[in-house]
């Protein structure tokens, strides 16, 4: 009796070959379709982890920037304070005031010749009412202020004639009030303006004269501020 024949798939007569055969086109299509529907989990979609070292550098940069800004603000405040101090060292006429304690009106200390200044005071009708002498002094303040401005301009422009004439004018005004030191400096300006040496009366070069005028003018401004301080103290200002 013959055994029943095993029916195989038409596509393969060997069962082993059928089991090991590659997937059909239909099966490939189904696999590809399922892959498309699956979520894409590439490195690009994964959240980026922050680099701790980068964050630290960024924090340090921001901190340094804040410190720089703070230092700039402090520097500006220091400059403003310096400018305020500089402004306070100038009197109401813009002439640098010499740093010194308030002068004693009873002690002229070589600033004022009291014999000469006393002649001005004698013109006052009353010692308690110094209107006349104070008027002369206030007029001198205004004259000195304008003269110093003219001397500064003349020195800048190297105008020797103006240096000579204005030095002579301020010398006379200061001498009338007995302002000893100021008178001497103004006399130097007057003589240097003529291109002469005050001591020898010999002729000097223009460059040397301008150099000496600059020094004498600086001294004159300091001496004026000193004299003005004493006069204001004398009149109770």
Automatic annotation (TrEMBL):
It comes from the Eukaryota. Gene3D superfamilies: HPT domain. Residues 1-115 are annotated as: Disordered. Residues 7-30, 42-104 have a biased composition (Basic and acidic residues). The keyword Phosphoprotein applies. The modification Phosphohistidine is found at residue 168. Keywords: Phosphoprotein. GO terms for cellular component: cytoplasm; nucleus. Residues 129-227 form the HPt domain. GO terms for biological process: phosphorelay signal transduction system. InterPro entries: AHP1-5/YPD1, HPT_dom_sf, Sig_transdc_His_kin_Hpt_dom. GO terms for molecular function: histidine phosphotransfer kinase activity; protein histidine kinase binding. Residues 31-41 have a biased composition (Polar residues). This is Histidine-phosphotransfer domain, HPT domain-containing protein.
């Amino acid at each position: 009796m013959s055994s029943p024949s095993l029916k195989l798939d038409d596509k393969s007569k060997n069962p082993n070959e059928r089991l090991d055969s590659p997937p059909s086109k239909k099966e490939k299509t189904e696999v590809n379709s399922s892959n498309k529907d699956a979520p894409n989990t590439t490195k690009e979609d994964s959240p980026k982890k922050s680099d701790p070292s980068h964050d630290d550098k960024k924090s340090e940069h921001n901190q340094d920037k804040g410190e720089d800004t703070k230092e700039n603000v402090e520097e500006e405040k220091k400059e403003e304070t310096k400018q305020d101090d500089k402004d306070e060292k100038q009197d109401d006429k813009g002439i640098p005031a010499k740093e010194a304690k308030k002068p004693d009106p009873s002690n002229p200390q070589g600033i004022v010749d009291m014999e000469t200044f006393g002649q001005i005071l004698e013109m006052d009708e009353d010692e308690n009412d110094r209107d006349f002498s104070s008027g002369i002094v206030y007029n001198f303040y205004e004259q000195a202020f304008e003269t110093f401005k003219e001397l500064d301009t003349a020195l800048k422009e190297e105008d020797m004639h103006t240096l000579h004439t204005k030095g002579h004018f301020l010398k006379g005004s200061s001498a009338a009030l007995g302002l000893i030191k100021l008178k001497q400096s103004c006399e130097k300006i007057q003589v240097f303006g003529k291109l002469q040496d005050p001591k020898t009366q010999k002729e000097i070069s223009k460059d040397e004269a301008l150099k000496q005028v600059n020094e004498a003018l600086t001294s004159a401004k300091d001496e004026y501020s000193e004299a003005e301080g004493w006069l204001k103290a004398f009149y109770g200002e």
